Amino acid sequence: MTDQLDLNHLRTFLAVYRSGSFTGAAQLLGLSQPTVTTQMRALERQTGRELFERGPRGVVPTAVADELATRIAPPLDALAGVAGPDPAADGRRVPVHLAGPAELLCTRALPALAPLVADGVRLRVTPGLTDPLLDELRAGRHDLVIATTRPRGRTLTAVPLTDEEFVLVAAPVWADALKERLAVEGPAVLHPVPLVSYAEDLPIARRYWRHVFGRRLSCPAALTVPDLRGVLAAVEAGAGFTVLPRYLCLDQLARGTLVPLHEPEDPPINTGFLVQRPGAGDNPDVGRVRDLLLRAARGW
Fold first, then answer.
1. Which residue, among 163, 149, 148, 170, has the nearest Cα to 243 in the 3D structure?
2. Strands 223-224 and 241-245
3. Alpha-carbon distance 248 to 3, whole Å?
4. What is the CATH number of domain 163-269?
5. What distance in Å separates the CA atoms of residue 97 and residue 181, rounded to the nearest whole number?
6. Is 232 helix (H, G, I), strand (E, B) or coil?
7. CATH code for the structural domain at 93-156+277-300
8. d(CA 14, CA 72)
9. Residue 91 above 60 pLDDT?
């Protein structure tokens, strides 16, 4: 599909895809917004397919755009590496696109990166789930992704970032009645209690049950919130029980507003990885963000 396509149009397309807007692409490339619009219309005519849909905060790539970006990003990034870094036309630094779990980004990564932002580094942060974010990383949408699993294949560079320990918790109103019974009777005593989770398939809780109790979790979620900070708030308020990364609820555990229901000698641990797309190293600020995250994570 791309053999006869104009190289400048493809570069502009990739800039729109990565920045999420025609305006952002124009700033990165030193073009006017009408020029970017004209080039994208020409590319859509050549491909015969719509590439972007306009949204309230920019443009949203179609499935065709995702496929095109996946195909052209590696060779264009390699070409850019040979030609040298392409600074922003107005002299400003090219933004670093970082993605990962919302709660880890907000509670750990962004505070650690604040000195770089103060020093002039530009960041664009996207929260999300690991699998879609890694697909977008391969397509060139992000420079770095904090992933909860190691990516498959050899196209992405991944290094261990941090280990998170999972803890089974509830507010005191539930813990007072359940903790001793759980130790004696086992996890069945929790089945009548509302379970709060960030997803319908209960990935963290299911893993905890397999690792700690050696059995399958059979109770459904009473409340799902697609952000672990929301899960934390609901459980702290007395909604029921959940399994959380310990780092996220350290303050609540210290204050006693959350209580660990069970403290196994071998709690489940999950390793997070910092994943970088090929070609992202052409922007020196990507390296600065990566290195600072790796240093900061030693204290997490």
1. 170
2. unpaired
3. 49
4. 3.40.190.10
5. 48
6. helix
7. 3.40.190.10
8. 8
9. no
CATH 3.40.190.10 domain extents, the chain: 93-156+277-300, 163-269
Residue with tokens 């994570």: 297
> What's the confidence (pLDDT) of residue 59?
86
86 burial class (0-12, 13-18, 19+ CB within 10 angstroms)? middle
d(CA 74, CA 89): 22
- Is residue 163 left, alpha or beta, with left meaning phi > 0 and alpha meaning psi from -120 to 50? beta
Domain with CATH 1.10.10.10 in the chain: 1-91
Q: Where are the alpha helices (DSSP H) in the chain?
A: 7-19, 22-29, 33-47, 63-83, 102-104, 110-118, 130-138, 172-185, 203-208, 228-236, 250-255, 284-297
Q: b or e along 12-31 (b: 16 or more beta carbons within 10 Å of the residue's beta carbon)?
A: bbbbbbbbbbbebbbbbbeb
Global pTM value? 0.73
Q: What does the block give as tokens for 192?
A: 């009548």
Residue-wise pLDDT tens digits, 227-274: 999 999 999 999 999 999 999 999 999 999 999 999 999 999 999 999
Q: In terms of C-beta density within 10 A (0-12 exposed, 13-18 middle, 19 or more buried), how is residue 58 classed?
A: middle
CATH architecture of residue range(s) 1-91: Orthogonal Bundle (1.10)
